[in-house]
Fold each of these.
Amino acid sequence: MSPLACVDAGLWRPSADEPRLVCGVGNFDGVHRGHQRILDRIVHLATEHAWRPAILTFDPHPLKVLRPENPPRLLTTLEQRLALFAAAGISLVLLQKFDLDFARLSPEEFVERILIERLQLAAVVVGANFRFGHRQQGDAATLGELGSRRGLLVEIVPAVLVRGTPVSSTRIREAIAQGRVTLAGRLLGRPFAVTGRVEPGAGRGARLLVPTLNVRPEQELLPRHGVYATETLLGDRLYRSVTNVGVRPTFDGQRLTVETHLFGFDGSVAADRIEVRFWKWLREERRFDSLTALREQIARDIERARRFFVRLDRWRQRPAASPVQSVQTAKK
């Protein structure tokens, strides 16, 4: 597999001695199951035709420019998206600066000036809900019509359904904001993950309760305040864990924190960044009348999380186990 290259789309110039590109176009926030179907198709076409598998994506998210008063909180950082693209077999990411000038391009101008003239694409792959051009005047069908006039192969990938409803970044954001991280994981095809640097805490956990690592989250969107069964990747080791998202009301906290207690952790932090993967909601964050009551509740949280992971391990061992149930493809 070729290493992933990330290039400013405005500076990209195709070379005559390199393979042409088959390119997915979109925001790909979350790189969820619907996006993964698109990535699979890109890699398949690239293998079949000896093209290079690529992604054209936008920075910042278009709605941060077009709707700055209420932009979506992103599910993934750029670093996370690039890692997921690479894992799917993409070898080139073209990062297009999105500003008001770019937003004013008509659908015809976008296809002609960007896809045909600048990038010289061999093929483009998009989802069925794809919209583009000034005021989103173009859709997937428009792209197909414009592409056929210029000899550009356009493939439209049907939506992926989970429990009868299309997977979308908006649906995942709603689930995470509600604390429904198990549902979010089904839609993503993996647990929702928060990444960030380990930062020093007040030390109360280690002295009075249980030792925890405090994470300075890089994500714009965090799960609803509460306690979760999680897994925490520290260096190259994955620990089962319990994680609290909130303000620690028992200690009259004001600042939002993400702190995680790792099972079997020896207390030595060998890496300055960690990743916390959210598997299951356990309870609301709340204020306790005493440290003893809080300590007892934490013990119950840890036991519930341990039981959850025992069930998860048993489920994974089933012969016909699948990470997501009821995944379908929408009919055209």
Amino acid sequence: MPERESFAVLTVDDDPAIRSQLRGVLEDEGHEVGEAANAHAAYEALEKRRWDAVLLDLSMPGEHGLDALVRIREHSPDTAVIVVSGESTILNAVKAGQRGAFDFVAKPPDPEHLLDVLREAVKVTRLRRGAAEAAGGAAKVAAGAVAPAELDMDEATLGIVGECPAVERLREQIRRVAPSNGRVLITGENGAGKELAALAIHAHSKRASGPFVKLNCAAIPKDLLESELFGYEKGAFTGAVATKKGRLELADGGTLFLDEIGDLALEAQAKLLRALETGEIERVGGTRTAKVDVRLVAATNKDLAAAVKAGDFREDLYFRLNVLPVVVPPLRERKADVARLAQYFLDRFTAAEGRGPMTLNDDARELLEEYHWPGNVREMRNLMERAVVLVPDAKIAAADLDAWLESPPEEGEDAGLKGKVARSEIDTIRRALEAADWNVTQASAGLGIDRTNLHRKMRKYGIARR
């Protein structure tokens, strides 16, 4: 078995119990841990050595975490900063992102989620350091020198960027359901922003001061889901060396977000239904019941009504969950927002990387607006982060992005006339590109089509320069 990679992580929190908890989680994974009780101590620790990541609280005596975040990024722009805070509002998450935080994790942190975020953050940290070393140690530009484009108050408070009708409908749904205590079912494709919608609902609810606890039902093995939801008593099974609270208990007084609820096993569905009906839970291996006051927000990318008909999802649980439906639109239905969203992420990542402003050329905007976005907003975020790290120019062209976009799905071609037409089109496009020395603008002009259409056909047919 390969040895686990070890990271150097600095935890910055005024609460010694939280620092101890984080130390235990991190050291169990073999990571080196440093501690700082306030911002000043964090700066001293950063002076003494290089850290792969910083876990930063917001509410601390003295300097606030958001101000400390800026100074940490200025001092160590290649170190990832993950905000771990009880101030889990959308506005704080947006502000943290604008100041260069890699991610925002609400307290109490779920250990597995925190470790997943940490692993991704350190990948970026090491990519930055490798790029800097390959470039000969070029001088670092102070992070945050470029202020991200300001969001209007409606976007800032809900955390959802965009002005198209589909996004306005989503905001209106959130405004209506948030103040209620009713259960919410959020539907939408992977990467469309279902968790962001859930956070917005929690942040604008009567439970905003309570915890926001997340459980991804697709990421937990079926035999562990029950213990994750309800907790377990010491000795309940092999490895249960201490009593552990489940997500329902951790979310008491707040919101429990069950992501990918459609992947919940039938047995766990029955126990969740009973907990929702009675407001009581019983830990695995326990005999006592406990009352919990939790608002449930669930999300899925599946058609639960079809799953009910197929016998894969309980009909009574479906109706319990689907009290207040919220639909998150896919990015391909938000074409008017694509360029604005791309610029938002560019501003965010240039600030995090300490780069000057970056913008999209007209051909790049056209390419992104015509793209089918199978990975939705998550794919957009990753694409813009990659562009900020790897594109050397301040102006991003379509040619910089095209190789990173997926080809649209093929539509089963016949071997007859349709196949011959496709082969003829491929030959014509390749000849035009070769005649133009693979200059897409010149080739599209010669073919009498626009650049975006030519890029789309090149992806469809897998045409690339030999």
Amino acid sequence: MDTRRPPGQVDHPPGLEGRITVHQLRLLVAVVERGGVTRAAEALRLSQPAVSHQMTSLAASIGLPLLDIVGRRVVLTEAGEVLHGHALRVLAEFDAATRSMDELRGLSRGRLRVIGDTTVGIYVLPDVLGDFRERHPTVDVRLEIGNRQHVSDRLFASEVDFAISGRPWLEPERPVESTPFLANQLIAIASPRHPLARRRRIPLARLAAEPFIVREAGSGTRETAEEAFEQAGLPIRPVMELASNGAIKRAVSRGLGVSILSRYAAALEIELGLLVELPVIGFPLRRQWHLVRLRERRLGPAGEAFLRFVEAGDWRSRVGHPLATE
């Protein structure tokens, strides 16, 4: 095999992309490791002429001789030694990439990024994501929590895989797919010392007359509560606006007013006797959290696994146990 002056040799070849293949680099390494074309062909279960042809084509693409025949041995030229060194590194990266892709397909690695609005992010998603990670312990799971605007900003900037929000966006910036995630009941709460706490049945108008402690503007909880009172023609009287469920619960427990929160958010304080659920006619208000993702964004294996996990739904019986007072 003559590879010293390959046909079509050029003195200054342009970039090698598109002119040499990973297969050719693997053959070059095999020829060097096996000490010849024939042994490389046997090891790779290829014909000797096929390997020789690829080596000739590789040398022609490089524009320099790569192999010399010394006796019965194949010896690398200077250019061959340089290319061989690069080939080893290139093939090592390809092999590493192959392992990584195999690991992703097998979910032995991967990343899942989820953002949720305040209530679901604090009281529900840690349970859900913890359950998911028990099944896929090597997946890197990341949770962000924010108000509705922050959730939408992160979703539409393609910085998260999924958003969990109380209301789907009516006119989203980008096409989305939205599916029901979990039912959410909003309840009226008060201090156990509040006069309404002893009532068995409370008209909505009576509740509307109380001083209200409300979430910040833009909160899905606040929007739902205000809509319920507006539909009944009953304006409420906010006396305090707080951007934290924990702060609202503390203020309510001190007797500063009544409020409306998710049952998930108030469960622990009700269980401890720090708050009471008021039996208001027409309550609880029923909402639905939604799982939202960008329609054109392709999910990775971890995202696909999470979507299947959510759709299976067996996690629902294990979420929302009262553990935190935030």
